[in-house]
Amino acid sequence: MRAAVLHETGQEKLEILDDIETVGFGPGKVRIRVRATGLCHSDLSAMNGVLPQPAPFIPGHEGAGEIVDVGDGVTGLAQGDRVLLCWLPACGACPACKRGQTQLCLAGFMNAGTPNFKRPGGDVFGFAGTGTFAEEVVVDAGCAVPIPDDVPFDIAALIGCGVTTGLGAAINTADVAAGSSVAVIGCGGVGISAIQGARLKGAAQIVAVDPVASRREAALTFGATEAVAPDELADATQRITAGEGFDYVFEVVGKSATARIAYETTRRGGTLCVVGAGAMDDHLQLNMFELFFDEKRILPSMYGGGDVLTSYERAIALWRAGRIDLAGLITHRVQLAEVNEALDQMRTGVALRTCIEI
Predict the structure, then answer these.
(1) HSE-up of residue 192 (Cα within 13 Å, Cβ side)
(2) Which CB contacts under 8 angstroms, 24+ apart, belong to 242-247?
C-alpha cells in the first residue's frame, strides 16, 4: 500500500512508500479506503514538532472514503459505506462527554500513541490516530461518520476538520452577535470558515487579516467586508471601530505574537477567540491589571467548540442550501505522489486548501 511518510520530526519532505501495511484491524475497528484528504496546517505543525506526534508517522487527518471491512461488534456501519474521518471521536463515557463537551474527550488522543501502520523497518504511526495520506487506514468505528451520497469525498474531507473548526469557532464558541464587528487574523481554510460563520451569524463588519494577497482577495469572496495586511490592521481598527477595537477577534494562526495582537485589537468587554493550534513552549503574556480591567473574554475553541457530529450535519445542511461555499475552499488538487507540492502550497500561503486525491 502507498502512503506518504515522515521519518523524523523536523524533516520538510515526505517520502512516498509502497511497502506500508495497516495494523490493528479487529473488533470495534473499520478499514477505510481513503479517496480524498485535505492538507491542514496542523499536519505541518506535527511535521515540524509544534504539535506532539511520535515518528515515523503518516500525516493527514482530514479525510473521507469508503469502508472496505468492518470488525466484529461494529454496528451501524457496513462495507461500502461512504464516510468522513473524525480524528477526535467521543467515547461517550468520560466526564467531558457526560457534560456535553464531547470535543474535549481525550479518548481519541490516546490513539495517536498507538501505531496503526507498519513497514519492514518497524512501526509507523498515523497522525492524530488516523494518517489519511495513505490509501487505507484502520481506525476505531467511532472515527468513521457516514455521509450522504450527495456529498463528494473532497467536501466531506474538509468538513472533517477545517470547516467544522472555523464555522464552530464563530457559531458555537464565540456565538457572534448580529450587527457586530469581527476581525479574523489568519485566512487559510480555517480562517475563511470562521469568516463564513461570522457572516452566517449576521456580523456587520468582517475584516480579514492575512499577509498573503491572494488569501485577502479570497476572503472578500467568502463574506469579509474588508481585507487588510497585518500592518494595516491598526488603521482598519481606527476607521471601523473608532479605535475601540472589534467585538470579536479570531486568532487562527497559533502563535503568541498574533494572539497578543488579537487581544489588543479586541474592544474592552469583547471576545478573543483562539482557534490556532500553537506550541507548548509559546507563551501568551498578559498582565493581571489588563486582564481584570479590560474584561475581555478569552475563549479557546477546540475543534469548533461543540459536538462534532452535530457540527458535521449543520455544515452539510448549510452547504446544500448554498449558505456556505466549501468547493471554493479547494484551490489546488494533487495526487498522493505530489504531496510535497501541496506542502509547499501550504507553506507559501498560495492555497486555502489543497485536496489530495488518493
Answers:
(1) 25
(2) 244/268, 245/270, 246/181, 246/182, 246/183, 246/205, 246/207, 246/270, 247/176, 247/177, 247/180, 247/181, 247/182, 247/271
CA-based nearest residue to 161, from 134, 188, 201, 138: 188
Distance CA 159, CA 196 (A): 13
* Structure letter (DSSP) for residue 189: H
Answer yes or no: is pLDDT of 112 > 80: no
Asked if 254 contacts 278 with a C-beta cutoff of 8 angstroms, the reply is yes
Cell of 268: 474592552
Q: What value does the CA radius of gyration of the chain take, rounded to a whole number of Å? A: 20
Grid cell for residue 228: 487588510
pLDDT band at 109 (very low <50, low <70, confident <90, very high): confident
Report whether 68 contacts 1 (CB < 8 A). no
Respond yes or no on whether the N-terminal peptide bond of residue 56 is cis (omega within 30° of 0). yes
Reference 80, options 92, 90, 66; nearest CA is: 66
The predicted model scores a pTM of: 0.96
